[in-house]
Amino acid sequence: MLRGRSLSVTSLSGLPRWEVEELPVEDLLLFEVAWEVTNKVGGIYTVIQTKAKTTADEWGDNYFLIGPYFEHNMKTQVERCEPINDAIRRAVDTMNKHGCQVYFGRWLIEGSPYVVLFDIGSSAWNLDRWKGDLWEACSVGIPYHDREANDMLIFGSLTAWFLKEVTDHADGKHVISQFHEWQAGTGLILSRARKLPIATIFTTHATLLGRYLCAANIDFYNHLDKFDIDKEAGERQIYHRYCMERASVHCAHVFTTVSEITAIEAEHMLKRKPDVVTPNGLSVKKFSAVHEFQNLHATYKARIQDFVRGHFYGHLDFDLEKTLFLFIAGRYEFSNKGADIFLEALSRLNFLLRMHKSDVTVVVFFIMPAKTNNFNVETLKGQAVRKQLWDIAHSVKEKFGKKLYDALLRGEIPDMNNILDRDDVTVMKRAIFSTQRQSLPPVTTHNMIDDSTDPILSTIRRIGLFNNRTDRVKVILHPEFLSSTSPLLPMDYEEFVRGCHLGVFPSYYEPWGYTPAECTVMGIPSVTTNLSGFGCFMQEHVADPTAYGIYIVDRRFQSPDDSCNQLTQFLYGFCKQSRRQRIIQRNRTERLSDLLDWRYLGRYYQHARYLTLSRAFPDKFHMEPTSPPTGLRSLVLRAVMWKMKRMSATMRKRRLKGIG
């Protein structure tokens, strides 16, 4: 049975603030710089997009995002307008007059924040000069063949130039600039080298070297203090990028990371302990009725069932009402994302379900984009056969229903042997014959370019999960992002997640982990690990995460085989749950969404901004050298102490009045 204490964090907004004064936002300008502003590449886009409304509500017209210009993104996501702020308008005009192409407008997302976008290509003629500037600032050279690093240098140089123009005309307003990841770090380095009056924050969402080392199947977290950092970066030909990242970290007034696990990593990889941990949040939208998200689950589950009917035509000998849909999604990083341990656990789960003669079937989707050249013909045929059968069944049903209705009107009980025409029987027989299939249902929906060397397909061949009739675990690799316009599975990612029963993300390297967080907000249970920022966050904030549908696999303090066994037991236990237990668990999972709301987690960003102001402008801003509490227990304890102080003060007043 599911168990666990009741958890409600809806009152978090009523907790007392940390002992810092409110920022005078009307006298400040806040900039956030990232390569993923209006430009979706990875998780940073989600961070900025979902946080925009909360930040814009707090800062109003004094909040600006800086990113790269791409024509397609500009046309579809940005509404151009003229800057209201005089300093911004002057900076844009000055740079445009000097041959740069700077675009200003509103990003068409919640909060409609202002964006400043730089056309990288139009300023490439300055590349050599800016390489010299970077060398003079921090002795970091960028090779000509690394196009990405060269683009980041241009982007950072334009950012520093823009901030210089803004501060020259800021009319006494103090400027805060937060830089996300090494791609934006050059702007921070040059701003500090030129002594611009700016309070700077650098946020790393993952270290460069950490991602590379984990992908190489190295026991990363148990050897953090033993790596020769310069040697490892040099061997992977990313030394210049690593130097850019490390210089950004050490130039910033305040250094932040997205999780405690990444803070430990950054302290060893980048040689600076983060000042603040700023967990990633989401923009949480609550339904007016609790059961609404359960209804959405049923609706989208039916659409996934339709796809499964087509994909497994001819082998559909399992009950779809007793079928569970599991999925893993994200970048195609086989080891980092935990696809290796997940596949091994699925093999063991298949054995357990068959051994115990379970009537539950598990269909597992791998949503991980890879190189393909076309749709799999068998997959397309399956959807065509399903649609044809549906049309035939619908046509026969109409005829059957009309004849039945007419017979009942005449007061007769129809002869079921004669109610169907011979033609109808012939059509149905032909339809049945069309579902005959000589081959097994495919394990991939697309033709893979590197089929023989693909890690997922190679592992599937090794463990033998070929979608046989006797297999209780079926596997489908969908090597493209989901889209509502797809001819195979016409669903957006959010719709697909809501229709599944469990998200499985047993990552080895996951600085935060938006995929399980998104599952939680949608009320879908998920599997994560104690090496992901999200998993550590939930362990700290929730006394019994499993009771709330957050299964945390220990990948740090036990062997890979033990971790795989633990994951298998989680999956098998989930398969044994009744439908009612799963409904109760989804309700519990959805109740955790308040913990991940930016209205709560945004406080960590507020703390970082005040801290950087106190360090950059100590004469104007002062802050005690304390950190905000990192856990819910700390927050509750602080709230209790605050209430006790209030009660004591009230009692003293009552005694003074003689009514105590």
Automatic annotation (TrEMBL):
<comment type="function">
    <text>Transfers the glycosyl residue from UDP-Glc to the non-reducing end of alpha-1,4-glucan.</text>
</comment>
<comment type="pathway">
    <text>Glycan biosynthesis; glycogen biosynthesis.</text>
</comment>
<dbReference type="InterPro" id="IPR008631">
    <property type="entry name" value="Glycogen_synth"/>
</dbReference>
<comment type="similarity">
    <text>Belongs to the glycosyltransferase 3 family.</text>
</comment>
<dbReference type="GO" id="GO:0004373">
    <property type="term" value="F:alpha-1,4-glucan glucosyltransferase (UDP-glucose donor) activity"/>
</dbReference>
<dbReference type="GO" id="GO:0005737">
    <property type="term" value="C:cytoplasm"/>
</dbReference>
<protein>
    <recommendedName>
        <fullName>Glycogen [starch] synthase</fullName>
        <ecNumber>2.4.1.11</ecNumber>
    </recommendedName>
</protein>
<keyword id="KW-0320">Glycogen biosynthesis</keyword>
<keyword id="KW-0597">Phosphoprotein</keyword>
<comment type="function">
    <text>Glycogen synthase participates in the glycogen biosynthetic process along with glycogenin and glycogen branching enzyme. Extends the primer composed of a few glucose units formed by glycogenin by adding new glucose units to it. In this context, glycogen synthase transfers the glycosyl residue from UDP-Glc to the non-reducing end of alpha-1,4-glucan.</text>
</comment>
<keyword id="KW-0328">Glycosyltransferase</keyword>
<keyword id="KW-0808">Transferase</keyword>
<dbReference type="Pfam" id="PF05693">
    <property type="entry name" value="Glycogen_syn"/>
</dbReference>
<dbReference type="GO" id="GO:0005978">
    <property type="term" value="P:glycogen biosynthetic process"/>
</dbReference>
<keyword id="KW-0021">Allosteric enzyme</keyword>
